Amino acid sequence: MRLTILGGGGFRVPLVYRALLDDPARAVDELTLYDTDPRRLAVIGDVLDRQAQGHPAPVRVRRAATLDEALTGADFVFSAIRVGGTAGRVRDERIPLAEGVLGQETVGAGGVLYGLRTIPVALRIAERVAELAPHAWVINFTNPAGMVTEAMAEVLGERVIGICDSPVGLVRRAARAAGVDGAAFAAGRVAYDYTGLNHLGWLRSLTLDGRELLPGLLADPAALGSFEEGRLFGAEWLAALGALPNEYLHYYYFRRETLASVRDASRTRGEFLNGQQGGFFARAAGADGPEAAYALWEATRREREETYMAESREASGGWQRDACDLEGGGYDRVALALMRALSPGTDGGGDRLILNVRNGTTVPELAPDAIVETVCEVGPDGPVPLPCAPLRADQLGLMLQLKAVERATVEAAVRKDREAALRAMALHPLVDSPAVAARILERAATEG
């Protein structure tokens, strides 16, 4: 099979290539990279060359000069683009902060700004896929993943699937804390109910051989203190919630503390990544061969993982990330598992994965074509959302409000509709005033 990565010069592409090299089934035998920045593409190409050294049968890598060349003949298209680069993320975060509301890449006003900029580009990609590779599956990791997947689905239907590494990370950390080992996952003995939207979901059931583990975990402060989400939200709040939230819900549940932490920081996450990645690509472009480029990449990757969501950890007491969470990746393994499950003749069919797909009847209160993030069973015909327990009123309320924001953002981006953009921005629960929303949009239009 042939996999094309759009955003092939992205910093995390080597994680995907590492997963392909480690795959014993060799689900992918050719990787095509496409990026609008040739310097970044050349640097990442050097890192991949180093990864392939000594491998008995490395996956072939080629670079495409145009989008159409990259898409033609692809079996899978992995979309991981960043429209506006990290400099765009800096603006998305700083403009809201100047108005006293949270700026973050995918959450709040920053997420709406990023969606408005990204959706038109994502739609053009979807249209070219439909023309040049109509049978390809598109795996979307482009943020904000939920709304971008929803926009692309208007063109590609069910052949676009959004992925994220946060939910599976939460499930595995919670299972370890509850005493479940990795072998139980491999044997298919673990089941779970995770439902929500991208970066807005809850783990509401976790079973081993049919035995429910979550209530015991939620009642055990020591066990909760052993993993990231337990420390992030605190035992008292998790016991009250009766569920384990996705880490990004910290921005909603502890908005005052997180906003204070972000505003007190010397630089935003976007500013950190803009400087870090800019420095990496500049140094790596002048590095002496693939070995030096790879060493620089690995050191930069480690620093990136160590500082992930640092403002939220600082707001909830501060701690260092666990060693098992510093290896990076996660989404790359989800992508590989998804590709194997979708491919006829592989042993991946019937896998259960947490994906961003069309709702159908999963959450009856949402439209059937709305994109939700939930547990799916995946085979060659695509993912099928599994039935889930009814959502609690607080969970459903947040989902309904955020889905309205997502859909208004898509409408605004597609139709260039100022009223829809204002509605998307002002209705977000982390934006506290329509007047503030209007000023954020005006400044973004001026500075963009």
Helix-strand blueprint:
Blueprint lengths: L1 E5 L6 H10 L7 E5 L3 H15 L7 E4 L3 H5 L4 E4 L5 H14 L9 H25 L4 E4 L4 H12 L3 E3 L3 H12 L4 H5 L3 E8 L2 E9 L2 E2 L1 H5 L2 H4 L3 H6 L1 H7 L2 E2 L4 H4 L1 H10 L4 H17 L4 H17 L3 H6 L15 H12 L8 E8 L12 E9 L2 E4 L7 H23 L2 H9 L7 H14 L1
Parallel strand pairs: 1-2, 1-4, 2-3, 4-5, 5-6
Antiparallel strand pairs: 7-8, 7-12, 8-9, 8-10, 11-12, 12-13
Helix pairs in contact: 1-2, 1-18, 2-16, 4-5, 4-15, 4-21, 5-6, 5-19, 6-19, 15-16, 19-20, 20-21
Task: Describe the protein.
The protein has 448 residues and is an alpha/beta fold. It has a domain at 2-161: Rossmann fold. It is 52% helix and 15% strand. The protein has 21 helices and 13 strands. It has helices spanning 13-22, 38-52, 67-71, 85-98, 108-132, 145-156, 166-177, 182-186, 214-218, 221-224, 228-233, 235-241, 250-253, 255-264, 269-285, 290-306, 310-315, 331-342, 393-415, 418-426, 434-447; strands spanning 2-6, 30-34, 60-63, 76-79, 137-140, 160-162, 190-197, 200-208, 211-212, 244-245, 351-358, 371-379, 382-385. The strands form two sheets. Strands 7, 8, 9, 10, 11, 12 and 13 form a seven-stranded antiparallel sheet that branches. The chain has a six-stranded parallel sheet with strand order 3-2-1-4-5-6, sandwiched between helices. Strand 12 (371-379) and strand 13 form a beta hairpin. It starts with a strand and ends with a helix. The mean pLDDT is 93.
